[in-house]
Design a protein that fits this description.
Blueprint (H helix, E strand, L loop, with lengths): L12 H18 L6 H22 L3 H10 L4 H8 L5 H4 L3 H6 L2 H7 L4 H10 L1
Helix pairs in contact: 2-8, 3-4
Length: 125
Amino acid sequence: IRELTSRRHSMKMSDRLRRLNRYLTGWLGYYQLVDTPSILAQIDAWIRRRLRMIRWKEWKTPSARQKNLVRLGIKKAKAWQWANSRKGYWRVAHSPIMDYALNSEYWKGQGLMSLAERYQTRRWT
């Protein structure tokens, strides 16, 4: 998962999510008998943070960051404040602004599969 969500490899986010979903499906198929849904939820949160980090790096300039944050529903003043942040990618990826703007619903809309949700559906069928 760390390799698939690395910032070093430049690829379209749709391709990255497709490859990640394929890997997670196989991984969950192997571990579907585990009884730790909270661990899967933590892994989901970690994956989303890694993807937010990639998105932040894709929005290279402060103006692009501000424009994209405003497009995702953040107020212009807050977007400007965070767009000009000099914090590192990993730290910004866990900021309240990024958690709100690029939440689990956003990633679900992009096509990311949730391990915890998939575990619940497989567990009860």
